Amino acid sequence: MLQPTGMAVLARMGLAEEVAAHGARIDALLGLEEHGRTALDAPYARLGAPGVFGIGIHRASLFQVLYDAVNAAGIAVETSREVASSTVEHGQRHLVFADGKRSPGHDMVIDASGWASRIAQGEQHGLLPYGALWASLPVTRADPVAWNLLEQRYRRASQMVGVLPIGSRGSGQPEEVAFFWSLRGQDLDRWRAAPLERWKDEVRALWPETHFLLDRITSHDQLTYARYAHRTARRPGGDRLIRIGDAWHSASPQLGQGANMALLDAWGIAQALRQAHSINEATSLARRWRGDHVQLYQAVTAAFTPMFQSDAPMWPWLRDRVMAPMSKLPPVARLQASLMSGLFGWPLPVLGLDLPDYSALASAIASRAAALDQSYSPTTRQTSLPDAS
Ligand SMILES: Cc1cc2nc3c(=O)[nH]c(=O)nc-3n(C[C@H](O)[C@H](O)[C@H](O)COP(=O)(O)OP(=O)(O)OC[C@H]3O[C@@H](n4cnc5c(N)ncnc54)[C@H](O)[C@@H]3O)c2cc1C
Question: Looking at residue 278, what is its pLDDT?
Fold first, then answer.
């Protein structure tokens, strides 16, 4: 999911419409528990910022647009290098590779190597017990997909199945949805060893309407197991070094913020380099601008994750009996929308960013969908809140 925060950065880079053109417009998150009770009903419309929505997108689409922009800017890319650590010598930071070779000295290293960063050595990876199986599945407009929703079904918090429309990876490529199923890391081998049909029966029992997607999964290998880690680096930087994205802070993707946070971090360091008088001043400025928002979302994600992925019965009870009813109250609904859009804690003004032009983004998505299917008229589903349309 790309949130208004990540899109604000992409808009400033001139890439927002190109990215949106690959994605799907998501108006709300809707989650029902096993008996049909609403556990999560969160339309972006409750944000109070007209026209704002989320964008479901395949990560390859986002990567490709960014990669093309890097190439167009003439930035050199060196691939097939495994970074093992880094070191400072004579006022320059060098990367040390796994084969023992070293890079030339750099004024600064930005560690964007994700949650298992080797540069952030000696730190706990904070692996969470639950991860999820994921597949990107082709769909057609004739399929019964709620094109404008991220939908989930839960059995307590120990089972979750979800479907998220993610647009199309490019011309000639089909529309896709991301399909995911919660699974504890310790159960992965057992899942692999069991017949696929047994797992499909479990999914169908929780959400029978996903049968048309399950029919498109014919082998265990179509599903990728993603592990989640909740970890905040003790030192988000050092001399001529700054960590951004998951290398600084990683969390479970329940709130769909990680890539957006990484984009904000990247924008922060770019802005800081423009303003600061030295590299080290720039890294501390960037950390200061981003620090509060990062801490806030790390705390909120840690609090929310057990409500959607855990074994203790107390968490789903809180989710269904306390959080869901409370979120119908206007101030709470607005807070929830602000949290899921990444805007809680006002991360944009400090970085000199504004919300992007969502009418242009909506047009970019609609034209791609229309080009794909001449008879396209968006079939959207309303959530239970009246203003979700
Ligand atoms: C299943 C799943 C769903 C998610 N859903 C969402 C979502 O909806 N919205 C959202 O915003 N976020 C989501 N996230 C989180 C998001 O993917 C991450 O927060 C985001 O990718 C972080 O970006 P990054 O650039 O910091 O790190 P990464 O995307 O992890 O990129 C790190 C890169 O560094 C490379 N690398 C790592 N180690 C080395 C090394 N030693 N040497 C050289 N290269 C190295 C890796 O190969 C990789 O290419 C999800 C995550 C998962 C797992």
Answer: 97
**74 alpha carbon – ligand 1 mean position (Å):** 24
**HSE-CB for 35 with a 13 A CA cutoff:** 4
CATH code reported for the domain at 4-59+129-227+353-379: 3.30.9.10
Q: In what helix (H) or strand (E) does residue 303 lie, and over which residues does it extend?
A: helix 279-308
At 387, the pLDDT band (50, 70, 90 cuts) reads very low
The answer to whether the CB of 112 is under 6 A from ligand 1 is: yes
The residue ranges of every structural domain in the chain are 4-59+129-227+353-379
Please say if the pLDDT value at position 386 is more than 80. no
Question: Is residue 246 within 6 Å of ligand 1 at its C-beta?
Answer: yes
Q: Please say if the pLDDT value at position 57 is more than 90.
A: yes
Share of the chain residues as helix, strand and coil, in percent rounded to the nearest 5: 40, 25, 35
pLDDT tens-digit readout, 345-365: 999 999 999 999 999 999 999
